[in-house]
Design goal:
Distance between the termini: 60 Å
CATH topology of the largest domain: Rossmann fold
Strand content: 15-25%
Shape: elongated
CATH architecture of the largest domain: 3-Layer(aba) Sandwich
Helix content: 25-40%
CATH superfamily of the largest domain: Formyl transferase, N-terminal domain
Length: 314
């Protein structure tokens, strides 16, 4: 069944979903994504990952600042979409957009709704220490991920999963679940099930400042942060006036003497840790400002005064 489909999404998670639609019988007539942004040193303009794929496939790309403009809504209506598929788009759709397609707007959400609604479900899942997550296909309404559920599939979280690796797992599951669900929805086999509001929780929008480490937290909390903010915005601290990113770490039990934030040598792997409010955070891979990422073993060889220093002081 050929269905005129508009896709809305922005990050790599959405790329995986879009690729699956392009391989299917659904006719993707346009792609909506967030505006280009300046990023990195020199502030070069960076395309959203979804835009790169759409341009490669020669699909129309629209990047509205907001759907609050009647002209933007009219532009979307001109495509005469029968179905809108949304995956990590980054904007709430107004009623004028939700009512456009014959077969509604479906959202591929990277959590087991109603848990972890909002813009950062994968990171929030890790921050909360969940052992299980999943993907939800839902009918969109005017709320923030509050619409009826069409399908869900659970996904386990491994001890070392980062937001990046978990997002990749969830995208693969989301592809399968979406392609199984849409035909049933189009044929009228499925009916949406309302969410249990008593179980609802929300994630917040992550900013670059969220990655700064407070050593007064516990090693367990900091370990979750390191994983949740990998690959972006990356956890960081201050080492002798320079920013030090921590890409990989592991929580260790109590047993280190020193002040909070002090770097100590460990008898066990990874060999270097930092004293926290509760427990030691073992450092595995770090990156000093202006340098490449490396194992803490190599880092310490080149910075012998690292052991004994106190992190977090600019």
């Amino acid at each position: 069944m050929t269905v005129r489909t508009v896709f809305m999404g922005t990050p790599q998670f959405a790329v995986t979903i879009l690729e699956s639609l392009l391989r299917s019988s659904y006719q993707v007539i346009a792609v909506y994504t967030q505006p280009d942004k300046a990023a990195g040193r020199g502030r070069p303009v960076v395309y959203p990952p979804v835009k790169k794929l759409a341009l490669e496939r020669r699909i129309s790309v629209i990047q509205p600042e907001t759907f609050g403009s009647s002209e933007v809504v009219k532009g979307l209506a001109s495509f005469q979409p029968e179905l809108i598929v949304v995956a990590a788009f980054g904007s709430i759709l107004p009623p004028e957009v939700l009512s456009l397609p014959k077969f509604a707007c479906l959202n591929v959400h990277a959590s087991l709704l109603p848990r972890h609604r909002g813009p950062s479900p994968v990171a929030n899942t890790i921050l909360c220490g969940d052992e299980l997550t999943g993907v939800t296909i839902m009918l969109m309404d005017a709320g923030l991920d509050t619409g009826p559920i069409l399908a869900q599939e659970k996904v386990g979280i491994s001890f070392m999963d980062t937001a990046g690796s978990l997002s990749s797992k969830l995208a693969d599951v989301g592809v399968k679940l979406l392609l199984e669900t849409v035909p049933k929805w189009l044929s009228g086999e499925l009916k949406g099930q309302p969410q249990d509001e008593s179980q609802a929780s929300y994630s917040k929008l992550i900013t670059s400042k969220d990655g700064e480490i407070d050593w007064h937290l516990s090693a367990l909390e900091l370990w979750r942060m390191v994983r949740a903010y990998n690959p972006w915005p990356s956890c960081y601290t201050w080492c002798q006036g320079k920013r030090l990113k921590i890409h990989r770490a592991i929580p260790l039990g109590d047993g280190g003497n020193g002040e909070i934030g002090e770097v100590i040598a460990l008898a066990e792997q990874p060999g270097v840790g930092v004293v926290t409010k509760q427990g030691i955070l073992g450092l595995c891979q770090v990156q000093l400002e202006g340098k490449r990422a490396m194992s803490v073993t190599y880092f310490v060889r080149g910075k012998r005064n690292f052991i004994g220093s106190v992190l977090g002081q600019k």
